[in-house]
Amino acid sequence: MTHHGQHLALAQAYDGVTRVVADLDDADLQRPTRCRGWLVADLLFHVLCDAQRALVALASPVEGPPDVDDVSYWRKFPPGGQDGAAARHAWWARRSAAAFDRPSGIVRLWTDTAPAAVRAAARADPDGCVTTQGHVLRVPDLLATLTTEAVVHHLDLVLDLPDAPLPGVLATRVAVATVDGMLSDDAVRPAAWSDAEYLLKATGRVPLTDHDKLELGEVAGWFPLLG
């Protein structure tokens, strides 16, 4: 996908999150999500941190070459976290979100920050490199990682919000391509899986059924592919 396409996908992914949370009241922002121990407000704060990280990265160009791409980047974050790091971050995010006077304060900060990150992405040099999380990535690859995370967390957010919209098609396509990249070239997902089901199962949000395991064969042992 071109840089322009990656930028549009990120814009769609962040707009999708906004459409989920924009009209929620404080009670709905305290509904559960697919992320263990996190309410909607907690998870939104986590995604907000991603948008803030995007702004820093896009304003911090570095010399190449990149040391990871949009797929290999995720191998630093295996399912279940490393040495309790995921649990520590989850606890920090919950406490940080709770520091807001009201959950809706996180929504206001998100709606200011997410569009700024998208604008910064549009202005970034598509042939340039940036640094984030201790790695150097091409700008389009950074945008793909941000899109993938936003799409997966969008699906997490709507667990207890049955009327909420699903992620957009272009953004979902980027997330699916990332998960495809984690599989071997000869591995094929079950044909009956929707994109959302694929992402939820590939990230361990939904367990594989016995039928899934039969269809996947030995590839089932690779699941979840990322956390």
UniProtKB/TrEMBL annotation:
What positions does the domain Mycothiol-dependent maleylpyruvate isomerase metal-binding occupy?
11-157
Looking up InterPro entries in the UniProt record yields: DinB/YfiT-like, MDMPI_metal-binding
Any single GO molecular-function term of the entry would be: metal ion binding
Residue ranges annotated as transmembrane are none
Q: What is the recorded name of this protein?
A: TIGR03083 family protein
Q: Give the source species.
A: Micromonospora citrea
